[in-house]
Amino acid sequence: MFQTLLYRIMFPFIIALLLITLAILEMQKVTLAKFYDKQLSVSDYLNWYATHPANTIDALQILKAQQPDHHGGTTQDWCPAVHSDNGFVSITYLDDQPVCCNLGKGQRYVYYKENEQEITLLCGRWPRTEIVSVDKTGMRAAQSYLNSY
Hints:
It is a single chain. This protein is of the alpha+beta class. The protein is built from five helices and seven strands. Helix content is about 40%, strand content about 25%. The protein has a five-stranded antiparallel beta sheet. The chain has a two-stranded antiparallel sheet with strand order 3-4.
């Protein structure tokens, strides 16, 4: 009798948890589709891999912040070639290294797309995502600066 009562109480919570998890995964799919300017079809919602492209990049490789020579500094000093769609670049840490993007917990690889002038990256996971752009000329200058030391 106790098991039946426990089952009747826990079953709705388990179902609700599964539905919430599926909704979060679907919203991440919608976020990726929007990032890549792709229209989702009904079959895309059922296929997990429909909007998960293989083009990801290590966030430390391209978004590692440059520590300025002086103590402190603004975000612009730390991330001179990075621009955020929301107007403010976030700095998070990955392997004790500052990264110019709001990474999700445990996230190392981020989705990206590029054109001739810049690389655009999608950091974080729904609902906390940040889209940042890195100017390719500024990125090359930063990489040559880092390689000189």
